[in-house]
Amino acid sequence: NSLTTIWKLYRNLSEDQQRYEKQLIFEHPAFVKLCQQLLRDSRRMTRGDLAFSLHAVVNLGVPQNTLLVQTLVRVCQEKLNQLDNRCISVLATTLAGLEKDKNVRALQAGLQLLVEQRIPSIRDIFILQNLMKCLGKDIPVFLKKKLEMAVLKEIDHLTFPNALRVFLALDAMYYCSIPILNACSKKIQENVHDVSFRHLVLILEACYSLQYRNVKLFSTVADYVNSTACLWDKRQMMLFLSAFETLGFQPGELMDIFAEKVTEEDPEFLNLKSLLTVLRVYSRLNYIPKDQKDL
């Protein structure tokens, strides 16, 4: 509980604050004692305490090659069959952030086998998408297919936040499931005003990497960006345009708005790198902005 509380407080800090607080945490005598106690009691801990302690220790930045982290990884491997679905999800998240040494690879292999056995019993879409994201693209195709079928069984209960997570999890797993992508796209279109800038760009990038072409989704995103153009700075709009260019989708109104912003408001914004990016986008999409040709 102490470790999880420390991690929850730590993760909400800025990067600068985290660097400062991390030093204070690691130098604090109570933290050293806590880690020593964790090391001594690791084999007697409950499954939940074990999984969450490893997660907190790794995310706080305790080095992977320490006796503490390596011991917790080995104990997780010994108790793997005792973990419930939530603990499996937490463990998958933790392993995704670790380097692939001998112990981690062994635990990952065991985790894949356990996930394969447990998939039919997992009804929580959050756990399913997290496993998809954390197990990643290197898992066997048959396991990707099993995860897909499990998500499809719960697709009618898909909420917008989970739709967004599942969409991006498919990209992390590098698996194009058209039925799931279509269902997620519908939810995203209905709630596009709630999607952050970062996630909008990630969605477009995922469509490209998965070779998923949904013109209605592209149009919805482009229309939303058009209607909220005042909220985006020019660099953000350039990222949108560049993402649309890779998809071969021409958002004409957005391209007009961007050209007007640059030529009338801030021509100096375009340094050489930006200028080349803009010229590439407009050229490949074969678009000349209205009334902006000469400028």
Number of discrete helical segments: 16
Distance between the termini: 62 Å
Strand tally is: 0
Please outline the major beta sheet.
none
Q: Report the portion of residues in β strands.
A: under 5%
Pattern of helices and strands:
HHHHHHHHHHHHHHHH
Helix/strand-derived category reads: mainly alpha
Cα radius of gyration in angstroms: 23 Å
GO cellular component, one term: mitochondrial matrix
Organism: Jacana jacana (Wattled jacana)
InterPro entries: FAST_kinase (IPR050870)
Protein name: FAKD2 protein
Describe this structure in words.
There is one protein chain. The protein folds into 3 domains: 1-120; 122-212, no CATH class; 218-294, no CATH class. It is built from 16 helices and no strands. The protein has helices at 2-11, 15-27, 29-41, 47-60, 67-78, 85-96, 102-118, 125-135, 141-153, 160-173, 178-190, 197-209, 215-227, 234-247, 252-265, 272-284. InterPro entries: FAST_kinase.
Short description:
This is FAKD2 protein. The protein has 295 residues and is an all-alpha fold.
SSE map:
Layout: H1 2-11, H2 15-27, H3 29-41, H4 47-60, H5 67-78, H6 85-96, H7 102-118, H8 125-135, H9 141-153, H10 160-173, H11 178-190, H12 197-209, H13 215-227, H14 234-247, H15 252-265, H16 272-284
Helix pairs in contact: 1-4, 3-5, 4-5, 4-6, 5-7, 6-7, 6-8, 8-9, 8-10, 10-11, 10-12, 11-13, 12-14, 14-15, 14-16
